[in-house]
Amino acid sequence: MESILLGVGVTALAGALATVAGAAEDTESNIGSQGDPNSQVQLAPQMGYIHRIYNKAVSGEPPAYGLWVTIGAGVAWAFMATGMNPVLAIVIASSLAIFVQGVYAATAYLGRTSSLAKFEQPVYIDLLKSVTSVTMAHAFVAVFTTVSMCYLMNAALGHPFPLPLLGIVWGIALGAAGSATGNPFYGKERQYQSQMFGAGVPISASGNIVRYAEAGQRSSLDNGWFTAKLGGPASGVCFGLIVFLELWRTVLFEEAVGGWGAIIVGVIIILIFMIIDRYIETWARKNYGPYTNAEEASA
């Protein structure tokens, strides 16, 4: 009984860490335009729209966070093998992983922006200095909490995978959760607020992203502010639920039904979420319907 209570407590703590990680990951990726609309940010100067939006996307979020979390988990695992305190090892390892992330972000921005020189898109050094450090800060929170979560799985729950392997699995899962959940709240909505909601992005509007604020040009930091309201929390809840439900069913039902209990509960959870998703989709279509022009709606 005590082991089950300990397992449930660790599961709750891991879920909380995952929630923080998901929110930080989505905010970091959106500030750096690594999410869905990065192609439009890259396209904008070619269409005549010079901007100050930071763009560090040279890969999707899942492989990027798979790399950074794996570096953090692997280095922490090596430090702990030498007898270092686990908390100190995770902090130092996460800092080293974020150094790699910073180099990745800076070179990606310089490389992608320099390739647009023929379209008169300048490289803004002040943007490079200010936004890179902000993405590194958010990435540190995401990597530190994810590596800590992996350590809890390994040390407290006795997961058979070593820490670096857990870092690969959950780093990719973290990036996938942020990419799938957070981007719709930020990408097309934030970058295309000049377009009518639900109208999509017509070819004639390609690259016509939001570039100006109430006073002067916008930078990617504004996207972080916007993401913190919707996309970040949504991504955090998504990743937190994934981690909590995954660990919860394993802790409580692993020994049931000859070892099949956790698998059966996992299938039941998937079916429940499929039913909920289908209900929400049909409810939304019934109540809001397809997008129509203003003339058609008023007719």
From TrEMBL:
Topology versus the membrane: Multi-pass membrane protein
Translocase found in the keyword field: yes
UniProt pathway annotation: One-carbon metabolism; methanogenesis from CO(2); methyl-coenzyme M from 5,10-methylene-5,6,7,8-tetrahydromethanopterin: step 2/2
Catalytic activity annotation: 5-methyl-5,6,7,8-tetrahydromethanopterin + coenzyme M + 2 Na(+)(in) = 5,6,7,8-tetrahydromethanopterin + methyl-coenzyme M + 2 Na(+)(out)
Enzyme class label: translocase
Keyword annotations from UniProtKB, A to Z: Cell membrane, Membrane, Methanogenesis, Methyltransferase, One-carbon metabolism, Transferase, Translocase, Transmembrane, Transmembrane helix
Top-level taxon of the source organism: Archaea
Enzyme Commission (EC) number: 7.2.1.4
Keyword Ribonucleoprotein: no
Annotated GO CC locations: cytoplasm; plasma membrane; vesicle membrane
UniProt xrefs under Pfam families: MtrE
Main localization, broad class: membrane
Signal sequence region: none
Annotated GO MF terms: tetrahydromethanopterin S-methyltransferase activity
GO BP terms: methanogenesis, from carbon dioxide; methylation; one-carbon metabolic process
Bilayer-spanning residue ranges: 64-80, 87-111, 131-153, 165-186, 192-213, 225-245, 257-276
UniProt-annotated location(s): Cell membrane
Matches recorded under NCBIfam families: mtrE
Function: Part of a complex that catalyzes the formation of methyl-coenzyme M and tetrahydromethanopterin from coenzyme M and methyl-tetrahydromethanopterin. This is an energy-conserving, sodium-ion translocating step.
HAMAP family: MtrE
Complex formation: The complex is composed of 8 subunits; MtrA, MtrB, MtrC, MtrD, MtrE, MtrF, MtrG and MtrH.
Family membership: Belongs to the MtrE family.
Protein known as: Tetrahydromethanopterin S-methyltransferase subunit E
Taxonomic source organism: Methanofollis tationis
